[in-house]
Amino acid sequence: xxxxxxxxxxxxxxxxxxxxxxxxxxxxxxxxYDQLTANVKKNIKKDEFxxxxxxxxxxxxxxxxxxxxxxxxxxIKPDKNGNITFPFAVSMExxxxxxxxxxxxxxxxxxxxxxxxxRIEWNPSxxxxxxxxxxxxxxxxxxxxxxxxFDRNGKGLAINGLLFEIGVVPGEMKEQKETILxxxxxxxxxxxxxxxxxxxxxxxxxxxxxxxxxxxxxxTELVNKLLAIPSVKKKNVTGxxxxxxxxxxxxxxxxRSMYKEELEKYEEKGYSSSEQIGAAxxxxxxxxxxxxxxxxxxxxxxxxxxxxxxxxxxxxxxxLTIDADLQQNIYKELSTDSGASVAINPKTGETLAMxxxxxxxxxxxxxxYKKKKDDPNKPFMAKFKNLYTPxxxxxxxTAAIGLNTGTIDPNKKISIPKDTWQKDGSWGNYYIKRVPSxxxxxxxxxxxxxSDNIYFAQAALNIGAEKFIKGLESFAFHEKIDFPFPxxxxxxxxxxxxxxxxxxxxxYGQGQIQITPLHLAYTFTVFINGGxxxxxxxxxxxxxxxxxxxxxxxxxxxxxLIFQDLIQVVEDPNGTAYKPRTPGLKLAGKTGTAELKAxxxxxxxxxxxxxxVDADKKxxxxxxxxxxxxxxxxxxxxxxxVKNIFKARK
Length: 650
Description:
Helix 12 (324-334) runs antiparallel to helix 21 (635-649), helix 14 (395-405) runs parallel beside helix 16 and helix 14 runs antiparallel to helix 20. Strand 24 (605-614) and strand 25 (621-626) form a beta hairpin. The protein has three domains: 13-135, NTF2-like, domain 1 (Nuclear Transport Factor 2, Chain: A); 149-319, CATH 3.30.1390.30; 324-369 and 378-649, DD-peptidase/beta-lactamase superfamily (Beta-lactamase), CATH 3.40.710.10. The longest helix is centred in the C-terminal third of the chain and has 16 residues, at 556-571. The chain is α+β, with helices and mostly antiparallel strands. 38% of the residues are buried. The strands form eight sheets. Strands 6, 7, 8, 9 and 14 form a five-stranded mixed sheet that branches. The protein has a five-stranded antiparallel sheet with strand order 16-15-25-24-23, with helices on both faces. It catalyses: Preferential cleavage: (Ac)2-L-Lys-D-Ala-|-D-Ala. Also transpeptidation of peptidyl-alanyl moieties that are N-acyl substituents of D-alanine. Belongs to the transpeptidase family. This is serine-type D-Ala-D-Ala carboxypeptidase. Keywords: Membrane.
């Protein structure tokens, strides 16, 4: 018998290197390590190898890793040392852009537990060609210049400017340390303990400048007081500035550092962890446009050797239709109250002002937050985007719906002999009340001028629930507003208009109806534009061709009729907006007092409203709402403030 014994063939070097390349593409550094030469393994342990190169790739943001190796068609002969060399090419995307290079790998045949095998002689240049044994990489962000926000006239609302960084030099305090800390803490409005924590950081030396807080150079009194304290110094830094401060805070928002839970989200967008993001207002809304693209540079640590570099792309500037001076003037009128105001050009749709009060200084948000976070008037809330009960400012809309449906005859006088009314006994003890009226025979003009609740309650009942809801929806109730700044959606009723009392109350703006000050402003454009509701605009580039948000909401005839009636609200001596008189200024408008109460018949908080438009030029319409006016004259308190704004404009 003849026995044939087979012997296994040694693995080919190109097959071994192809396996290595496959593991490399998958960034499987553990399997790669197993294929390295014994000499390499003597100098670096497996866990060190794996963690080192995983971290380099991870920190560099390596994606789309490609290693191009083509197996030779002909047999490769070993060199005089018995080694074989294969060329290969590497390409990848990193934080700092694309990296591509060519290199060579040396394979050595070594004895293993399974016989002879080819092993790879590892070289750190496989990762990056600039990298030598023992060297590390440094990855540094290049922050883009954030885009700025300007008003319609080019005035800065959120800009990049020179700021002062206030700090102390510990070695210069000497025996005055306690006094210096107390004085500095008081002026900077921070705690003494907070300053002490910063002074106790590990890197701080006697001659170190320890930064404490950024201050506005325009506050010269504060800066001079600080610099008069021994050891207190300043450094010039570039930072975000909000020149209009509190008056535009809710519009602009502010910047802040990222929270831990946000880091991953923004790192995926290419941000560095040290960058700030928009935290509210337009800084947040337009974060992507304003931020730009972070640049990155990957270097060999401790050297000037650049592995890759991607320059930053600066953010885009944004120009608004806002008039910063008007914004500031409106805020001056509102600043001591809790409320909101929106100003628009009703012919073009341009938003001219969006104001909320009380407010905060976005130039120093952290200090402001500590001081005001418990304020019941909610200074950090942008009230112009929130829902409120409109009260009588809704009556022109009810009038329009009644005219549309033919249920209101504008010339017909309705007999309303008393200041209380109910449809019938089924309403129990509930009565609609109106403010004392000079008229007992009331037509549409008188009902609007004197703000007659009973007239509009009856009008809503005559219209009917279905048509009333449909009519309000023609004014964009229940519809999300196509507007850059997020605004809540106005609503009519919580669970449908399911009873007559609710319908009657809704007719004069009570019930469950809620609308935002912004939306309310645009509903009144129907009466200025021949029945069309203009589309809201906030970005200046969009203002060129005004367009309608809603067309033919009412007929041109009915729109003009209601507009003339709104003039009487201000011009009629018995009109609710007659006082204070403003000679030389002709306005059309509507007042409103919204009652907020837990149950029918109760006395509750009252919010005052006034919507007014320049009746001649028709280029400025202002909506203003002020909370808690019940002991301050109701809506009349608001009327005087709005008229002051129009007078200042003349």
